[in-house]
Amino acid sequence: MTAFNDRPIEEHIAQWRTYVSHRKPLHGSDVEELEGHLRDELRTLAEGGLTADEAFLVAVKRLGNLDALSREFARAHSERLWKQLVMASDAEQPAKPGRTEFLVALILAAAAALAIKVPALFGHPISPNEGPPLFYARNASLFVFPLLAIYFLWKGGSKVINGLWLSLPFVAGAVFANVFPFLKGSDTEKLTALHLPIALWMAVGFAYIRGRWSAESGRMNFVRFSGELAIYYVLIALGGIVVTLFTFMMFGAIDMNPDWFVAGWLIPCGATGAVIIGSWLVEAKQSVIENMAPVLTKLFTPLFTLLLLVFLATMAWTRNPINVKREVLIGFDLLLAVVVGLVLYAASARDPQAPPDAFDGLQLLLVASAFVVDAVALWAIAARISEFGFTPNRVAALGENLILLVNLVWTAWLYARFLRHRSSFAILERWQIAYLPVYSVWAALVVVTFPPIFGYR
Amino acid sequence: MGMGKDLVAASATPLVLAILAEGDNYGYAIIKRVAELSRGHLQWTDGMLYPVLHRLEHQGLVAAKWSASENGRRRRYYRITKDGRAELAAQRQQWQTVDSALRGIWMKVCKA
């Protein structure tokens, strides 16, 4: 029996379904599950001798108050909150009004843009004719991340005293980026420039989730935030390029050279300010980009899988070994980081309750092929080290490869279990989240220990 | 007998896990089983079971699967996982501790 013989009851159920479907925390499958329950109850009540109308009233009443129910569903599925923000009304902190928030973001962005110009007053000029000095590369994150942390602390309504704790990692970062006597053209200096932002991003994460690093949903939200900030940042950067091109074209037309302005002001100030503005955009317009990130993941997972497979096939066919140069090593690390990012992002955008589908199979293929590529790269680095000894670059690349390898192996294992219905997706998600601090800790290790160990080479 | 809200909420996890340890089941039948076990004293608001189940699923303590039911509609069946069994054992120990502590004092209080 799929339907009740009574027409009115079916109508009642249909009405109830439409009504319930309007509750945002309740997804289609939740409504279906509740409807199944309602029907079972109606049948039992009807067998007990109630009329259809009576049975319906009782069954709906027993299901409970819809507001309370929606709230419970929202709590059980905090990942959906990202989309709906239904809890805003009963969260502990009062929501900041949109206008004030924009003003704060704007002031902080201006502060970041000015901060990047301060060193120019103390003998670190940016000249349009040569690349920016490494001083800026080393310290880039220090001009922006503290302000970003302040933005989140303000947004979360944290006390100033908590903020002071958070200033410690930034102070430490500033010390380690600047006290070491790096030699000219030193590799460790470039490594510091690359790794400091990764290490400090965790401090921003702390500010984002207000110090409750143990809260898993908070960490996943920070992952979502990071990914979406990256998307917004690229969009803003594209706009910035257009502005730059027009600046050159227009001032060139009246025989003025805007080099000093573009290189000295527009690019550095724009690049720093855009981080804050991008963050504000992510926070303010969560639902806009929400639909874009999963689409991008879905688009690039097959592409990267294909790329990795073709690369492996080519390498097996031609037997060309990997040429271990610095750029190549960094490139491979980046590639693997992108793969991990794709996995992480797919996880963050996925409904953990949904059963495995073809896309999950593709993800497993991506992870598995990335694992093989990583193993090959690792082997090449190890061979290089045993032949020519340790250099900071090789050790850094080795460490990163190992860290990513561990993650990929375990992710592949969990994915395989999930695909065979042996395990839930939530476990995979939890593994990815639990692994996040490892990246930052390793990056911090590179910044703090590598320069002295390798003699500032 | 009216039960305190907190007590009902606290007992939900061990009850659901224990019922699923008897065998895979779906929401409506779980609620019927709770009523039967408590002789009708533990009355949940029916709908509230589902967020509880979903939360347990999120924690990896139970796994769920849609499959056809005898009436032709899809139904969501829940199954306890290995982690769920471990959690059930842990909960059982905690509840037994509470129970034995209370028993000790009940005897005295009732005799007096």
Task: Describe the 3D structure.
The complex is a heterodimer of chains A (457) and B (112). Chain A has 457 residues and is mostly helical. Chain A has helices at 7-21, 28-47, 52-63, 66-76, 78-84, 98-115, 118-121, 134-156, 160-178, 187-208, 216-253, 259-284, 286-290, 292-318, 326-349, 358-388, 392-419, 425-453. Chain B has 112 residues and is an alpha+beta fold. Chain B is 62% helix and 14% strand. Chain B has helices spanning 5-22, 27-37, 49-58, 82-111, and strands spanning 25-26, 62-68, 74-80. Chain B starts with a helix and ends with a helix. The model of chain B has no long low-confidence stretch (mean pLDDT 86). Chains A and B meet through α2, α4 and α18 of A and α2, α3, β2 and β3 of B.
In short:
Chain A has 457 residues and is mainly α. Chain A contains 18 helices and no strands. Chain B has helices at residues 5-22, 27-37, 49-58, 82-111, and strands at residues 25-26, 62-68, 74-80.
Topology:
The complex is a heterodimer of chains A (about 450) and B (about 110).
Chain A: H1 7-21, H2 28-47, H3 52-63, H4 66-76, H5 78-84, H6 98-115, H7 118-121, H8 134-156, H9 160-178, H10 187-208, H11 216-253, H12 259-284, H13 286-290, H14 292-318, H15 326-349, H16 358-388, H17 392-419, H18 425-453
Chain B: H1 5-22, E1 25-26, H2 27-37, H3 49-58, E2 62-68, E3 74-80, H4 82-111
Antiparallel strand pairs in B: 1-3, 2-3
Helix content of chain B: 55-70%
Low-pLDDT stretches of chain A are 83-95
Find the structural class of chain B using helix and strand composition: alpha+beta
**Average pLDDT for all residues of chain A:** 81
Calculate Rg of chain B over CA atoms: 16 Å
Roughly what fraction of the amino acids of chain B lie in strands? 5-15%
Number of helices of chain B: 4
Largest sheet, strands/sense/barrel of chain A: none
**N-to-C SSE string of chain A, H for helix and E for strand:** HHHHHHHHHHHHHHHHHH
Estimated structural class of chain A: mainly alpha
What proportion of the residues of chain A is helical, as a percent range?
Answer: over 70%
- Main beta sheet strand tally, sense and closure of chain B: 3 strands, antiparallel
- What's the average pLDDT of chain B? 86
